[in-house]
Amino acid sequence: MTSIGTGYDLSNSVFSPDGRNFQVEYATKAVENGGTSIGLRCKDGVVLAVEKLIQSKLLVPGSNKRIATVDRHVGIAASGLIPDARHFTSRARNEASSWRKQYHGAIPVSSLADRMGQYTQAYTLYSSVRPFGVTCIIGGVDEEAGPSLWMVEPSGVGWGYFGAATGRGRQAAKAELEKLDLPNLTVEEGVKHAARIIHIAHGDNAGKDKDFELEMTWVRVDKANVVEVTESGVVKGHGRHEEVPKELVEEAEREAKKALEVEDEEDEKMEES
Amino acid sequence: MNHLPEAWGRPRDDVYGAYDHSHLRPSMPNQHTQEPIVTGTSVVALKYNGGVVIAADNLASYGSLARFSNMERLKQVGTHTVVGASGDISDMQYLFDTALEDLVIKEEYQNDGHHLRAKHVYSYLSRVMYHRRNKFDPLWNVLLVAGWDDGKPFLASTDLLGTTFSAPALASGFGASLAVPLLRRVCPDEESVAKISRERAIEAVEECMKVLFYRDARSTNKYTMAIVSGEDNKVDIEWKKDVELQKQSWKFAEEIRGYGAQIV
Amino acid sequence: MFRNNYDNDSVTFSPQGRIFQVEYALEAIKQGSAAVGLVSKTHAVLVALKRNAEELGSYQKKIIGIDTHLGVALAGLAPDARVLSNFMRQQSMSSRLLYNRPVPIARVVNAIADKAQVNTQHYGRRPYGVGLLVAGVDETGPHLWEFQPSGMVLEYRGAAIGARSQSARTYLERNFEAFPDASREELVLHGLRALRDSLAQDKELTTANVSLAIVGEGEKFKLYDGEEVADWLEKLGSTQSSRGSRGAQAAAAPAGASGSGEGGDSMEVDA
């Protein structure tokens, strides 16, 4: 059944006869036009990466950050309408802050994702608001679960992931993420894969002629703040969300570009034979 | 019988008489904190050429009872600042663990190259203190803020009234009477800060901690010291925790009259 | 009357995931006269073209001082700009009162961005109809931000908004590499040349229609109007657009409402 012209897609909170909420689906369209975001849950931390498309060379390089810190131990990467992503992170910061006031401790990432899912879902319930035009990847490390990664969609649905991808290059990114043995990777290895995946996702879609900046952050536990290391090497403790050091990003990007060139050459050989 | 929903689950008026609402509107005016309960005593701080030394002992007293002997009363705030608190311990814990922690996290997540330095933290604290006093519900503390700011050592205090005060040598509580005169001998004014070395400042503060332990009945012999040192815009904070007073001499006690097993 | 069913309000997504009401608000910026901003390592400069509704009327104010270290230039609905600039002044004051610190530019910009976003998500509100260039200096140096009604804010080395601002932007794109090391005077002249390029063919920069503001490290935000800009115009030399017939073509082009008219102006700036 098509949505357009039926009238069922003109207002939020309205079901169509076959049980769909079109405004939420349209919000998802806004996400699918946005730059790719990915998250990797490794055994000792989480990596977040975004493809930040550069609209104008007049923009200040390295400014206009797309990955936000929510609390010491949590970061959010988002694809879609950027102002909506700012609203989303602002709410997440309030949740994290009020958790600290109530419980005198850092909010578990799963609880934060759960609350943000509820908040997002509330914006699908009323005709007086519109859904969020963003899908957000929430990554962090906490005491109870160790590294954890969640993705909240405009519908309010939120799942936990080992590898999450959203935005215009999500399909290519997902295909690459599935090839990885994420539960056994370290964040250092994760950073290299993340850089490579963003480069692949960028080359795979319509905006590939545009310039982009790779923005990467990670959440890791300082040695002094480790609470427990499980048998499988999962690190639990007080994580810290911060930018991946510049040298590491540059190295990862160099390797990513090299890997892509090799792949291209192989493709050409395949075509020749 | 009253079947209206607001009466559900309530004692029946016909059995127990009308509900007594008087506790909802007490005849007395609202009363806030009138005195501190669990308290920390003096905080001592001194500027030197290149930084600030700040120290406070580890005792939390409940009245005259030495209740908790491992209570640290100094807190690092961001990268440039150490705050010391005397007075009510639970108010201090609210300030340190809730208010300042929230402040620092909110500053960190902006990620825009700006950082709260000592004068900003000090301004914030003094506004909070003054605001609470205007609500007639003060936070019962004297706070010393030590740090490195604008290429210079920073030291200032604020109290439960929101009073602000700055000097090269500061002490709160008993120390305001006992330590400040000693520190002023070392550092009478802002100009003399340049002549004081780090070692000299540490030594002077250690000496004050000792004198305070001799004469302040709410003090203890274990203390925490932080040394905030800076060079241009680089700041380093060295912590000395659980320091015990050295080379004590109680010989002077013999000279003191008025208590103990004295015959004359 | 409406172009389609999806552009009645700002709480309806189109099937493509666009919000037309927000995109139309972005068009309101282009109804306003041009404003240009640019930064060097030491200074931030705003220049703007003022318009008067009628010959005997006064010129509409284009640059508003917020604090001693920052100010804004506007294009679009001036009353909306007043609401936003009053809010920025409050933020600035509260930063000084609470933290004894001039508000960091990025934070006051983000504050109005968050305010604007809410108006794009709730029924019964409308998006702001004004674009701002925010120029200021803080502890991390001079900054220039562009604010859009969508709630989008971006930091630029040089930016132009308002009617015919594409021509000014073209000038900035060709010359921006010289901005960081430009002197105060050179930076202002770059700004005026960019603004001059946005003029219609029969127009010129005059002391009546140019507003100029400078803020720098150790130099307070100062707005120059009227005779105060005479010296600057003299230094500039020619006050007419140097683009010749290209200007006429740009002027003839109707202000399209498709959202694809001027680069980077649609809400989906991420795309």
TrEMBL record, chain A:
Compositional bias segments (type: Basic and acidic residues): 240-261
Protein name: Proteasome subunit alpha type
Gene Ontology cellular-component annotations: cytoplasm; nucleus; proteasome core complex, alpha-subunit complex
Domain Proteasome alpha-type subunits: 8-30
UniProt region (Disordered), positions on chain: 236-273
SMART domains: Proteasome_A_N (SM00948)
Biased composition regions of type Acidic residues, renumbered to the chain: 262-273
Keyword Hydrolase: yes
Coiled-coil region: none
Family: Belongs to the peptidase T1A family.
Highest taxon of the lineage: Eukaryota
Organism from which the protein derives: Sphaerosporella brunnea
Function: The proteasome is a multicatalytic proteinase complex which is characterized by its ability to cleave peptides with Arg, Phe, Tyr, Leu, and Glu adjacent to the leaving group at neutral or slightly basic pH. The proteasome has an ATP-dependent proteolytic activity.
TrEMBL record, chain B:
GO molecular function, one term: hydrolase activity
Record GO biological process: proteolysis involved in protein catabolic process
Function (record text): Non-catalytic component of the proteasome.
Name the UniProt record assigns to this protein: Proteasome subunit beta
Cellular component terms per the entry's GO annotation: cytoplasm; nucleus; proteasome core complex, beta-subunit complex
InterPro entries given in the database record: Ntn_hydrolases_N, Proteasome_beta4, Proteasome_bsu_CS, Proteasome_sua/b, Proteasome_suB-type
Keyword presence, Transmembrane helix: no
Annotated source species: Sphaerosporella brunnea
Compartment annotation: Cytoplasm; Nucleus
Keywords annotated in UniProt: Cytoplasm, Hydrolase, Nucleus, Proteasome
Entry keyword Hydrolase: yes
Domain of life of the native organism: Eukaryota
Stated family: Belongs to the peptidase T1B family.
From TrEMBL, chain C:
Molecular-function annotations in GO: hydrolase activity
Coiled-coil regions listed: none
Low complexity bias locations: 241-257
GO cellular component: cytoplasm; nucleus; proteasome core complex, alpha-subunit complex
One GO BP annotation of this record: ubiquitin-dependent protein catabolic process
Keywords annotated in UniProt: Cytoplasm, Hydrolase, Nucleus, Proteasome
Ranges for domain Proteasome alpha-type subunits: 6-28
Subcellular location: Cytoplasm; Nucleus
UniProt-annotated stretches for the region Disordered: 235-271
The UniProt record lists the keyword Hydrolase: yes
InterPro entries: Ntn_hydrolases_N, Proteasome_alpha, Proteasome_alpha-type, Proteasome_alpha1, Proteasome_asu_N, Proteasome_sua/b
Family: Belongs to the peptidase T1A family.
Entry-linked PANTHER family: PROTEASOME SUBUNIT ALPHA/BETA
Full protein name: Proteasome subunit alpha type
